[in-house]
Design a protein that fits this description.
By secondary structure, the protein is α/β, with parallel strands linked by helices. It has a 6-stranded mixed beta sheet, with helices on both faces. Strands 8-9-10-12-11 form a 5-stranded mixed β-barrel. Strand 11 and strand 12 form a beta hairpin. Helix 7 packs across helix 11. The radius of gyration is 29 Å and the shape is flat. The N and C termini lie far apart (63 Å).
């Protein structure tokens, strides 16, 4: 639409103009447009283009415009093609032999020749590969660029490719259906300044960039009245919900002043306004336009009604567990009564930090115990949609490249809920860590994890503290320490599925020793 407006304004001058890229810098609200063209534009022509773009974005963004010469040679074209495939067809990128990708040129016509197997060609054709690549080049360049396959005989795992394609499609469906809303419930909303606010407030922690219209709620802290050098009266206070805090600024007049003087620390407010960046502190603050008094509802997570268990796994499917050690085939170990005919899911999370409110999940691993035996595993990296801190990468071995193509947590909630159906949840420090992360990240998703919880940390503490003086006990109750003390094998510490297996073995050992759940 924008490009059409530019071309129409130019009356034929800009027919070869292409929008090469459009990038938004969220924090600074800068929209950077990059146009490509074969011609050398005059300053007057650039001013025409910029005027049309400025009118289109109005005051939504600060506009930056760049121009590049529309030019391709064989090397540039090959690199552009490979980068496009890695970005848009990442599930198939590893199957391409990029060294064999060839670009031919004849009379200003370029042909990209892609070497593929018959199976890979079939998969790519099902995903409209040639059409999409062709349309991409048409959108960024005026050169005549064709793409064709060079088919060679080779073996490829078609089932694996089909599975990945299905995952990619189902992943997007699941993300749309089950993405948490992350909203707070309020009641008894009464108008205080301006009209009643009907929108549900978002978490303060989710407010990370300037926005024209936001709604938040919380309790007042540290209220103060400020008079500016120009004689304007402002009321400033911190608003705190259970996820974070934000500074609020209210511009006062004679009518508002009387009302605002009534506010006191501890009042629960629902506020609508504009989130802006403070010039001096570089932090977000809320310019309040509408204020309502309200009651913030307690988060009674366990009392919510969950959605039905999904019929099928959409993104992550369990894998059958095969133990490395083989027991005596002629001796059936007696199963503790507390485990008989029961299911337990032992799970572990790797995260970007310790706060379940501000940090993100980067890996989820789980194992399922049925009738006292580990039967299968559930494991996935999780895209946190943020950079992983260096200290976390050093601790876990998980780096950004390992999670960039992984599903986000909202995409796997439904599958993990299905995996946990009918089970009690087990974790080491589940009460104060993994369980809190799970509840916070599934709140408002529709899937409520109100399962019975068993904490192996509490089990170990109670059991060893109940022993008689003189009996050997572990020097602390960390997962690795307990594992070593009980002779449980440790593999890849601080990786979710391995920690889950270790915790499961510890759980079964503690049960065998007579520890209480």
């Amino acid at each position: 639409m924008l490009l059409d407006d530019v071309r129409q304004t130019g009356r034929g001058q800009f027919d070869d103009l292409k929008l090469y890229s459009a990038v938004v810098e969220k924090k600074s609200r800068i929209l950077e447009l990059c146009f490509s063209t074969k011609q050398d534009l005059t300053e007057q022509q650039k001013q025409q283009i910029e005027a049309v773009c400025q009118e289109a974005v109005k005051n939504k963004f600060n506009l930056k415009i760049k121009y590049i010469k529309d030019y391709f040679d064989k090397d540039i074209l090959k690199n552009t093609f490979i980068n496009y495939v890695k970005r848009e067809f990442f599930f198939f990128a590893s199957k391409f032999d990029t060294e064999k990708t060839v670009v031919e040129e004849s009379e200003d016509i370029f042909t990209v020749i892609v070497t593929v197997t018959p199976e890979l060609r079939q998969m790519l054709e099902q995903n409209e590969f040639l059409e999409k690549v062709s349309n991409y080049f048409k959108s960024i360049s005026n050169y005549d660029i064709k793409v064709k396959f060079d088919v060679i005989e080779n073996s490829v795992d078609v089932n694996e490719l089909m599975k990945k394609t299905d995952v990619m499609r189902e992943s997007q469906i699941t993300k749309v259906l089950y993405k948490p809303q992350r909203k707070i419930n309020v009641e008894n909303v009464e108008s205080f300044i301006d009209k009643v606010i009907n929108d549900r407030p978002q978490y303060i922690v989710d407010l990370i960039q300037p926005e024209k219209a936001v709604t938040v709620c919380g309790r007042i802290e540290s209220m103060r009245e400020v008079v500016t050098p120009k004689g304007l009266t402002l009321f400033k206070f911190d608003l705190v919900d259970f996820t974070g805090r934000i500074g609020v600024v209210v511009f006062s007049d004679e009518t508002k002043y009387i009302k605002l003087k009534e506010l006191k620390i501890g009042d629960e407010l629902l506020i609508g306004g504009q989130a802006v960046e403070n010039t001096y502190t570089q932090e977000l603050e809320l310019r309040a336009y509408r204020i309502c008094k309200c009651k913030i509802c307690d988060d009674e997570y366990e009392k919510q009604v969950s959605r039905p268990v999904p019929e099928e796994y959409a993104v992550i499917k369990p894998q059958i567990f095969i133990a490395n050690k083989q027991g005596n085939l002629f001796e059936e170990k007696k199963v503790d009564k507390r485990l008989q005919d029961k299911t337990f899911v032992v799970f572990d999370l790797e995260t970007t930090g310790k706060s379940y409110i501000t940090n993100k999940i980067i890996e989820l691993g789980a194992v399922r115990i049925v009738n006292g035996k580990i039967v299968d595993t559930f494991s996935t990296f999780v895209n946190p949609e943020c950079k992983i801190p260096n200290e976390i990468s050093e601790l876990t071995g998980i780096i950004d490249a390992m999670v960039e193509s992984a599903p986000t947590f909202p995409e796997i909630i439904a599958d993990f809920y299905k995996y946990c159906n009918g089970a009690a949840l087990v974790g080491h420090n589940i009460v104060d860590f993994d369980g809190l992360f799970l509840k916070f990240n599934t709140k408002d998703s529709g899937f409520i994890f109100n399962h019975q919880q068993v904490d192996t940390l509490s089990m170990a503490r109670k059991y060893f503290k109940s022993l008689h003086n003189g009996e050997e006990v572990p020097h602390n109750y960390k997962l690795g320490t307990i594992a070593d003390f009980l002779g449980v094998k440790r593999d890849n510490a601080h990786r979710a599925v391995d920690d889950s297996l270790m915790t499961a073995d510890i759980f079964l050992k503690l049960i065998e020793m007579g520890a209480e759940m």
